[in-house]
Amino acid sequence: MLGHRGCRLAVTYPEIYKMQAEAIIESAVAIQDEGIKVFPEIMIPLVASKEELAYVKQEIKQSVQEIFDRERTLLPYDIGTMIEIPRACVTADEIAKEAQFFSFGTNDLTQLTYGFSRDDAGKFLPSYSEKGLLPNDPFQTLDTAGVGALVEMAVSRGRMTNPNMKMGVCGEHGGDPRSIHFFHKLGLKYVSCSPFRVPIARLAAAQVVLEEQENLQEA
Hints:
By secondary structure, the protein is an alpha/beta fold. The chain has one domain: Phosphoenolpyruvate-binding domains (TIM Barrel). It is built from ten helices and five strands, in the order ααβαβααβαααβαβα. Strands 1-2-3-4-5 form a five-stranded parallel beta sheet. Strand 4, helix 9 and strand 5 form a beta-alpha-beta unit. The protein starts with 6 loop residues before the first helix and ends with a helix.
């Protein structure tokens, strides 16, 4: 989780992210040529500052424009970021000046908020549960008091800059019913999780909507 990865690789080795962006856009252009509408979304991970995102975004846009010029075509696309670092949550209003969407990487945000590592958390989290130190495994059900507070802060600050910004969640929490209730209250619009969790996520989201409708009828 820590170290030389994510957007940090794009700063030191820009060619890696340029290559990935080119592959995405070239594929999108090919699909568009077949008459299929496509709207790529390029997500930059592990961003901690507006400056990081602006740098990587500019490199990607330059590569994309070169493809458009070569192919003599255009297509719409967005560049956004994964919000998974506490600093990104605190400065989300600034990052939102460069991002066209937020996707909350709650797995990594949980690791960094707690200082846990998913690599060895299984060795001690059962003891925490047995002794009542944690009500749930924070990697399975979102810690709304801590990690959730950071997500809520990021949502609020991001929308101060861009009220209509698309926001969602990426990670196993996106398939947990209790976590989905929390995300829905914040106005997050989509989840990305393991395929086997998708039916659970859809059911939980539908239950939230039904509960809201029932509450409105009672009111």
